[in-house]
Amino acid sequence: MTGAKAWTNPLRDPRDKRLPRIAGPCGLVIFGVTGDLSRKKLMPAIYDLANRGLLPPGFALTGFARRNWATEDFGQVVHDAVKAHARTPFNQTVWDRLAEGFRFVQGSFDDDDSFDRLELTVADLDRVRGTGGNHAFYLSIPPGAFPVVCKQLARSGLSAQDGHQWRRVVIEKPFGHDLSSAIELNGIVNDVFPEDSVFRIDHYLGKETVQNILALRFANQLFEPIWNAHYVDHVQITMAEDIGLGGRAGYYDGIGAARDVIQNHLLQLLAFTAMEEPVSFSSTELRNEKIKVLNATQLVGPLSETTARGQYTGGWQGGELVPALNEEEGFNPRSRTETFAAITCEVNSRRWAGVPFYLRTGKRLGRRVTEIAVVFKRAPHLPFNATMTEELGQNAFVIRVQPDEGVTMRFGSKVPGNQMEVRDVTMDFGYGTAFTEASPEAYERLILDVLLGEPSLFPVNAEVERSWEILDPVLEHWAAQAHGPDPYPAGSWGPDSAKAMLARTGRTWRRP
Amino acid sequence: MIVDLPSSTVSDINKALVRLRSEGGVQALGRVLTLVIVTGDGSAIESAIAAGNSASREHPCRVIVLARGQKKAAPRLDAQIRVGGDAGASDVIVLRGYGKLADDEAGAGMVMPLLLPDAPVVAWWPGEAPAEPSADPVGLLAQRRITDALSAKNPTRAFEQRRASYVAGDTDLTWTRLTPWRALLATALDAPPHDPVTSAVVAGESVSPSTDLMAGWLAERLGVKVKRSPSKSGPGLGSVSLERMGGPVELVRPDGKVGRLRQPGQPDRLVALARREVRDCLAEELRRLDPDEIYGAALEGIGKISKGRTPIPIPVVNGAAS
Question: Which of A206, B24, B179, B233 is most exposed, with the fewest beta carbons within 10 Å of its own?
Fold first, then answer.
């Protein structure tokens, strides 16, 4: 980056693939450090990075929260979180080194004094730990608190970067709740941090399987020739969860599944699936292609027939009695928040003309699964008679994002016997259950990329705003309806309206 | 599950593998490579298999263990197949050959029919390795050959052999053990000031091939005078010092566990720098299956270094519990 114009490090060589990139001297400040995400994901990920030797010596982790803790209490909380959730085994030596860099600053967001103390802490870290003035601020806080925290960071001088030193800010979804609020939020953040210092976390993009989509498509000769409207009938992108929303009312009520998942994760998956080949794998080129394909993406109408929304009702799900959404604690009993959302998109390009992309997501569905299914057209001519191919469906190529990461192909094969009968079979590639064990968690990858200043896995402003632009008409359409979301039983695959939206073109949802 | 096949042949083993798959569906097909482990018939087998299994969690593979038994015995092959929970994410085939079957040629002949179709083959000698791995019958089957000079009876001689016989595709775990050191040094140079390094001193145990390799790597990359000195204390590689105009970049590790990075104008930084376990090294090795040119260059660089005689004291690192 800056300063490294002509100079190249003599110890580095592109052929030296063993040499990992360790972040340079730096520190991370987490706001909202007492939250769930921080304890379950961020702290373990930081330890795992340290254990893999990818954090710089002298790395500093500062927690900021209202809780009246001393640094030791904070250390204990991190320790417990690491013990409970870290992926790699606990190593005392690694822990001791990491724990030396812990600091805790007690305070609230509107209190000038606490940010001044944070500034002093950070400056002290530069002196004692050698963090070199490089600091990232992770805002693990509700978006409502962004303006005040950003203002405080600017006021206390924490956001000021000069020379070789960098300051970066990491923000989590939701990035607004519609286009105008997203623009407003981006404005607030960009007032304090320039766009290249803003890292928006979409943890899906840190997953190996999502990055693997690009490898599968562009490193192989096998798939790309058929990756177009000539051969592809339609694409289904599903993100289903079997859990409900108990305890998340504060965040979820009034937001709903479409804003929570479709706007970010599913449209990003669509972009990866549909994008053209980037000129190179640099972050700029990658983003250009993603923005290009998102710009070509549109809703298919009429929205009353091509979209569906639902809300789960109570009942027995997988041997467990679960409450309906409007009985969950904290939710308005008359809540119109949707817990299931499905939309139909099309990508207006030569490659994809006429191929519908069905996106669906929901809570309390059959099982927890995220997948991209590319369903192919039937062979134009079958030299078999109808009875022979009765059991033959459409070929499909399924990228299983989680769990059980891998790829499934479905095609027809002869049933053994003296008759010619063709039936669907599947072929699985699983990078083993093994893969998940040994491959880094999404947050590890993303936090490391923030510290390295490597932006390719983070959506930019333009992508976020374009995604809202795509989704907004659906949200407005739903809000204008007299009736609320359609009920669906917990543990099912969504309301009947979801089936109807595919049935109108003679298609059906896959059961993932 | 462990299936013993005493007094067996390779075609019996192949049949048993197919049977196990159709009966239990225990073997996944998504294997990415075959790892051939060549050992003697002793206690070392289990630790080698354990390392292979743990590496298989990152790289699903078939592990073939070629354990050479008594040469003065009637020719016999005892085989064992491990799948499922006893084999990590791999399937393990142990071949114990006796008599004529303990020979190199015969061993390679037994391995050949068990290799996964079309997948790369990696050979690993956890203990003593042949003088010329690339000419060894098993080595010839493999595109990557992994040895470990440090576990040989005479590490210095084994390492000299490695240097003399190096061809693309060879690597030695003495090189893998250096990766964390190399990464820290490279990162230290990443940050400004970007002053050129004028000379370097590397100190370690007098018998420490890794220390020699580090010096060779620095000599090759930096193109400056590099001195390799014995250290007064501490195991393995003890310290690296890169001289620059503004002062040296120093990485020291007195106790084999905790390192200290010292740079001019910056506070000392401690870093966990434990000697790496074999299974971590093996997993790193399997991450890349193409030749490691940088290792080859580092071996060559050893010819350019100067040897120091005066032992260099390795400073104690404050704050690090021993």
Answer: B24
